[in-house]
């Protein structure tokens, strides 16, 4: 399972089946969710602590913890990855989600200027 | 080809982009049905109106309020007692409906005076209720009555009452969804921030987008209370008007039905910095992870874990009993707006059901994204379905059961497909752990109904079997099961009682001391 | 000690007895075969009415919407009607009759539905659907006038007026039943058949009780055909059983085709059924047969078991469709009961002139109130705050909480009766209806006695 695309697909598929945070209703909101939650998930998988003082951050963080815990449980190939590899993987995952959920999305409401 | 063309809709080609079959290896960028567009006249669509979305869905669950429609009586009659949103206020909001009875002369001369009289009469008839919501209807929107002005006048004259005005006439949008949006925005603009609540806990949430159908909210409230979380307000199931005016003081908005209430969550986030956490209250795993997330937000995830462990231990054997017997059964998941995505994945995972189709009556493309993401390959996703398309889909897909509204359920019944009420449930509530088992039980009883089985026999043509005088659900369901499953000591049928809500109302909860 | 006629004192409605006109027009439309109506207005006007009807019958009926949205409200929505007709005709090849039912919104914005029908006839129907039989019938029934009752009355008239066509006399009478249940139609047809009278029944709704079959789709629909409607002009008489639900059509036939009409009585109870049979006999020359004497005898036998023992002096409140309310009140009086409160749910000024109501005012010899333009709070308020004591409530299911919260036994009658199983299969008219009603009332009182442990032992030996 060396292929990074295969890994991204597994991570993405889990998010699509189990999570809701990625489906806010505006493009900018989705990008924001993707950025924060995936960054934090990567940090957690790398054993780093996440700053959760700000309520908004804490809210991203609870979703990130769920992701990190679930990923660790399901995908043992994560355990053998280095921190750099994990960060790289998650950057790619974020790009992928930005594409599926925003840039490539057929949802015409995402670009509505009103909230 | 991901877009699905119905035979019966070939003559209205614009329908083609409203249905998609999820293909293998496809993602949401390949095909997504259009959504929330104007309805095609004459199509016999399932949609309702914006007044319904505002008054019926979101407004009327508020339990300590006089709900009055400014217009002819029909709108209020139609939205009276037709939902199962109970309350612990003796169902005041279910039993009582009010209308200003606008007549022809009012259409000509205006109805503001009669509105004012009505408001005063209503408060007089029910002196214990000091809160009111007034809903505009098509008629009064068109004649231009200034309901807000009248409400303000009355509030001046009667300082102990508060009145909320919602201007969402039936034609204001392609469907109910237009009404959801209007009432969300009106409520936060006019009422949120007007009341300072009593804070009784370190952990304060609003529970948003939950309407207490058959007691769903009370099930969830029980979990939150067991964790020592103060549910400042519920928007709006079993909800109190004044609590909802204090929404701005919560630490977190826990959102269930994003379709009807994400608007107010988004505004609360923008205006007050309250974060929005989307959860699923349906299904063991989604509910457990949702409770953990809420708990973790407050640093009390251990309390959440305790509840999860207790409930799972108690109810999983029963869920699994039904799961063994529902494996591979095909279902059309055809609700209004959000249950298609709340349920699509989890009924497959936890009950073994095969979701062959999802649809949304009034949802937006976002709901379709969620639904298609969560369902399996091969599922047919339909936006704004109409009756002929529904029939065609059922003939083609041959589901064993359909989850939909009461009246479309009658349509399904005629072609021998049993239905469960996705909006108001059969024997609910369906949220929570026990509730989820109740749902599984209803599905089981519907699919394995001996009478339903009899409906397939044509006594004039088919061989009438020599089977004896009766069958049971188990005889029908346990046919192909292994010995191990059938004789399992671990799994069992549902052992709960008929009414699981009344005991909750009498329960006491542990005190969790506030931090000094 | 007397019967007073009054009007509700409050301005507004709390817990309405009726819904609005378009619902009545829609209910009339589903009685016609190959008919799918288009309700011109917001989607709720159709969606809720379809739900209401489906609650009552536990069946779904086909009615369409023109789906007026915001732009329609501003700029007019006639184009939606045109599109709706086209879409309906394309997708339902069997549809022949399409009433265009207006609502408050489209009446207020002033959409000229009559005009668009003419336009459609000249254009769309003449080109795309040339050669196809299509009948577009405008029915004006905004919700700010009358109620579902007047909407029904108007629609029946509009259907008859559109179709009635002079031809050869058909040897039949027209029977306009009013807003009844399939069980009522069965009972009425039975009486006609015993009298050997041929009738065009408006409307043939027995088929509403449709089956679940091993194959096919036996969706509920009415069975009154276009030919039936056309032939109404060739009857030698019309009987409209419910004064407020069919008089307009009967009077139209009388005026236009010289067909004599008899209005009423609603054949609830023995006496009114007797009168119905007398009217039938007079109109057709057919005698009342022995078989009906037997039936009547069986009914009276059943009733006398109940009257002086259990029903006498029982205080009743009655609400619902006006003819039904009056018929039930009259029957209850014959049964020695005491109707104390009759609620007529809309502001029809004709109630004050109704000879049956006059008769009640003149002859009832105890305190009774008849309230016009009433709502269900008129009932409940009297119970809670004005000391009204009742032994029984007769009314439809929307009033169920009054009975439940105040522990008053209730027999569901009228429309809608969704909180009891299968009531639409039973008659309240004719001798069969009289028996059924009285026995329902008795059994309901008995269950209540047992629940409250109030002389329940008396039933041991009855």
Description:
Chain A is mainly alpha-helical and 115 residues long. Chain A has a domain at 31-103. Chain A is 65% helix and 0% strand. Chain A is built from four helices and no strands. Chain A has helices at 4-18, 27-45, 55-74, 83-103. Chain B is an alpha/beta fold and 516 residues long. Among the domains of chain B are: 50-190, Nitrogenase molybdenum iron protein domain (Rossmann fold); 204-311 and 501-505, Nitrogenase molybdenum iron protein domain (Rossmann fold, 3-Layer(aba) Sandwich). Helices cover 42% and strands 12% of the residues of chain B. Chain B has 23 helices and 14 strands. Chain B has a six-stranded mixed sheet, with helices on both faces. In chain B, strand 13, helix 18 and strand 14 form a beta-alpha-beta unit. Chain B is globular, with a radius of gyration of 24 Å. The N and C termini of chain B lie far apart (63 Å). Chain C has 462 residues and is α/β, with parallel strands linked by helices. Chain C has 19 helices and 15 strands. Chain C has helices at 21-29, 44-57, 70-75, 78-91, 104-108, 113-122, 124-127, 148-163, 182-194, 226-231, 247-257, 270-284, 290-304, 307-311, 322-334, 355-363, 376-385, 400-405, 430-452, and strands at residues 3-7, 13-14, 38-40, 64-65, 97-102, 135-139, 173-176, 199-202, 237-240, 261-263, 315-320, 338-344, 368-372, 392-395, 410-412. The mean pLDDT of chain C is 97. The A-B interface holds A 16-18, 20-21, 23-25, 29, 55-56, 58-59, 61-63, 65-66, 99-101, 104-109, 115 and B 27-29, 31-32, 34, 36, 251-252, 258, 262-263, 266-267, 269-270, 273-280, 286, 289, 292-294, 296-297, 341, 345, 364-366, 369-370, 373-374. Strand 3 of chain B pairs antiparallel with strand 2 of chain C, so a sheet runs across the interface.
List the main descriptive attributes of the protein structure presented here.
heterotrimer, A: 115 residues, mainly alpha, 65% helix, B: 516 residues, alpha/beta, Rossmann fold, six-stranded mixed beta sheet, 23 helices, 12% strand, globular
Show the helix and strand layout.
The complex is a heterotrimer of chains A (115), B (516) and C (462).
Chain A: H1 4-18, H2 27-45, H3 55-74, H4 83-103
Helix pairs in contact in A: 1-4, 2-3, 2-4
Chain B: E1 19-21, H1 50-59, E2 66-70, H2 73-78, H3 92-95, E3 98-99, H4 104-109, H5 112-125, E4 131-136, H6 138-143, H7 147-157, E5 162-166, H8 176-190, E6 204-210, H9 216-226, E7 230-236, H10 241-244, E8 252-255, H11 258-272, E9 276-278, H12 284-298, H13 301-326, E10 330-333, H14 339-343, H15 346-351, E11 354-360, H16 365-374, E12 380-383, H17 387-397, E13 401-404, H18 406-414, E14 419-421, H19 432-447, H20 450-454, H21 473-477, H22 483-486, H23 502-505
Helix pairs in contact in B: 1-8, 5-7, 8-11, 12-13, 13-19
Chain C: E1 3-7, E2 13-14, H1 21-29, E3 38-40, H2 44-57, E4 64-65, H3 70-75, H4 78-91, E5 97-102, H5 104-108, H6 113-122, H7 124-127, E6 135-139, H8 148-163, E7 173-176, H9 182-194, E8 199-202, H10 226-231, E9 237-240, H11 247-257, E10 261-263, H12 270-284, H13 290-304, H14 307-311, E11 315-320, H15 322-334, E12 338-344, H16 355-363, E13 368-372, H17 376-385, E14 392-395, H18 400-405, E15 410-412, H19 430-452
Parallel strand pairs in C: 1-13, 3-4, 3-5, 5-6, 7-8, 7-9, 9-10, 11-12, 11-14, 12-13, 14-15
Helix pairs in contact in C: 1-2, 1-8, 8-11, 9-19, 13-19
């Amino acid at each position: 399972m060396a292929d990074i695309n295969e890994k991204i697909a597994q991570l993405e598929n889990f998010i699509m089946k189990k999570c809701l945070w990625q489906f806010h209703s505006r493009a900018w909101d989705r990008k924001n969710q993707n950025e924060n939650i995936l960054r934090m998930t990567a940090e957690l998988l790398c054993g780093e602590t996440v700053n959760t003082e700000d309520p908004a951050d804490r809210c991203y963080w609870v979703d990130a913890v769920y992701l990190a815990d679930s990923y660790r449980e399901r995908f043992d190939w994560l355990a053998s990855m280095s921190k750099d590899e994990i960060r790289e993987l998650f950057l790619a995952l974020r790009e992928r989600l930005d594409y599926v959920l925003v840039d490539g999305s057929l949802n015409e409401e995402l670009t509505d200027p009103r909230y | 080809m991901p877009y699905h063309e119905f035979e019966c809709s070939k003559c209205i080609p614009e329908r083609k982009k409203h249905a998609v079959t999820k293909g293998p290896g496809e993602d949401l960028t390949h095909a997504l049905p259009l959504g929330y567009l104007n309805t095609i006249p004459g199509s016999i669509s399932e949609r309702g109106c914006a007044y319904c979305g505002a008054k019926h869905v979101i407004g009327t669950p508020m339990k300590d309020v006089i709900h009055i429609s400014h217009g002819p009586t029909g709108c209020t009659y139609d939205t009276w007692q037709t939902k199962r949103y109970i309350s612990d206020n003796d169902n005041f909001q279910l039993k009582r409906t009010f209308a200003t009875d606008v007549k022809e002369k009012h259409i000509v001369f205006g109805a503001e005076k009669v509105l004012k009289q009505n408001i005063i009469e209503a408060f007089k008839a029910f002196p214990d209720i000091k809160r009111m919501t007034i809903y505009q209807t098509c008629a009064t929107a068109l004649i231009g009555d200034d309901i807000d002005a009248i409400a303000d006048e009355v509030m001046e004259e009667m300082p102990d009452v508060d009145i909320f005005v919602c201007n969402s006439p039936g034609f204001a949008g392609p469907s109910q969804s237009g009404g959801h949006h209007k009432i969300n925005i009106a409520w936060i603009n006019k009422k949120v921030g007007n009341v300072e609540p009593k804070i009784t806990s370190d952990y304060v949430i609003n529970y948003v987008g939950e309407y207490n159908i058959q007691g769903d909210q009370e099930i969830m409230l029980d979990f939150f209370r067991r964790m020592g979380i103060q549910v400042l307000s519920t928007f709006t199931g079993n909800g109190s008007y004044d609590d909802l005016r204090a929404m701005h003081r919560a630490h977190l908005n826990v959102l269930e039905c994003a379709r009807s209430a994400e608007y107010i969550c988004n505004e609360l986030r923008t205006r007050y910095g309250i974060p929005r956490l989307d959860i699923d209250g349906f299904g063991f795993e989604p509910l457990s992870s949702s409770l953990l997330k809420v708990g973790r937000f407050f640093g009390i995830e251990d309390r959440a874990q305790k509840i999860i462990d207790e409930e799972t231990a108690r109810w999983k054997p029963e869920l699994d009993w039904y799961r063994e017997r529902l494996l591979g059964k095909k279902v059309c998941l055809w609700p209004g707006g959000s249950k298609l995505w709340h349920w699509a994945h989890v009924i497959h995972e936890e009950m073994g059901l095969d979701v062959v189709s999802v649809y949304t009556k009034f949802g937006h493309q976002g709901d379709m994204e969620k639904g298609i993401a969560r369902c399996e390959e091969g599922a047919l996703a339909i936006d704004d379905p109409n009756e002929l398309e529904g029939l065609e889909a059922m003939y083609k897909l041959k589901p064993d059961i359909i989850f939909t509204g009461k009246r479309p359920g009658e349509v399904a019944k005629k072609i021998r497909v049993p239905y469960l009420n996705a909006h108001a449930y059969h024997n609910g509530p369906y949220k929570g752990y026990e509730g989820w088992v109740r749902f599984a039980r209803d599905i089981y009883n519907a699919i394995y109904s001996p009478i339903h089985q009899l409906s397939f026999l044509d006594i004039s043509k088919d061989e009438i079997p020599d089977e004896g005088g009766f069958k049971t659900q188990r005889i029908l369901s346990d046919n192909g099961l292994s010995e191990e499953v059938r004789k399992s000591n671990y799994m069992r049928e549902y052992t709960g009682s008929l009414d699981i809500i009344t005991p909750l109302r009498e329960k006491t909860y542990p005190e969790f001391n506030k931090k000094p | 000690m007397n019967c007073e006629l009054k009007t509700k004192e409050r301005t507004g409605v709390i817990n309405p007895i009726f819904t609005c006109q378009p619902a009545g027009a829609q209910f009339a439309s589903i009685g016609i075969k190959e008919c799918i109506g288009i309700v011109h207005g917001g989607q709720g006007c159709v969606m809720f009415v379809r739900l209401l009807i489906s609650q009552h019958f536990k069946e779904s009926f086909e009615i369409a919407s023109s789906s007026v949205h915001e732009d329609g409200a501003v700029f007019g929505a006639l184009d939606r009607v045109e599109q709706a007709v086209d879409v309906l005709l394309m997708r339902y090849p069997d549809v022949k009759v399409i009433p265009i039912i207006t609502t408050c919104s489209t009446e207020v914005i002033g959409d000229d539905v009559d005009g668009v029908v003419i336009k459609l006839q000249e254009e769309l129907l003449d080109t795309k659907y040339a050669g196809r039989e299509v009948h577009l019938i405008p029915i004006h029934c905004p919700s700010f006038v009358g109620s579902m009752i007047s909407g029904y009355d108007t629609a029946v008239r509009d259907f008859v007026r559109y179709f009635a066509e002079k031809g050869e006399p058909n040897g039949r009478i027209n029977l306009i039943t009013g807003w009844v249940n399939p069980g009522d139609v069965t009972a009425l047809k039975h009486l006609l058949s015993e009298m050997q009278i041929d009738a065009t029944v408006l409307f043939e709704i027995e088929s509403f009780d449709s089956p679940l079959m091993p194959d096919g789709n036996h969706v509920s629909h009415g069975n009154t055909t276009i030919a039936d409607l056309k032939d109404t002009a060739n009857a030698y008489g019309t009987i409209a059983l419910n004064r407020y639900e069919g008089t307009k059509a009967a009077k139209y036939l009388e005026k236009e085709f010289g067909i004599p009409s008899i209005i009423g009585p609603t054949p609830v109870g023995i006496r009114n059924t007797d009168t119905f049979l007398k009217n039938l006999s007079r109109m057709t020359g057919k005698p009342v047969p022995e078989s009906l004497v037997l039936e009547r005898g069986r009914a009276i036998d059943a009733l006398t078991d109940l009257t002086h023992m259990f029903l006498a002096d029982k205080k009743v409140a009655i609400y619902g469709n006006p003819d039904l309310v009056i018929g039930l009140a009259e029957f209850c009086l014959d049964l020695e009961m005491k109707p104390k409160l009759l609620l007529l749910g809309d502001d029809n000024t004709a109630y004050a002139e109704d000879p049956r109501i006059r008769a009640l005012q003149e002859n009832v010899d105890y305190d009774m109130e008849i309230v016009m333009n009433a709502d269900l709070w008129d009932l409940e308020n009297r119970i809670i705050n004005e000391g009204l004591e009742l032994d029984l409530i007769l009314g439809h299911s929307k009033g169920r909480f009054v009975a439940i919260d105040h522990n008053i036994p209730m027999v569901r009658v009228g429309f809608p009766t969704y909180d009891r199983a299968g009531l639409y299969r039973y008659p309240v008219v004719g001798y069969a209806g009289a028996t059924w009603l009285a026995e329902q009332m008795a059994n309901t009182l008995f269950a209540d006695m047992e629940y409250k442990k109030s002389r329940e032992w008396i039933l041991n030996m009855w």
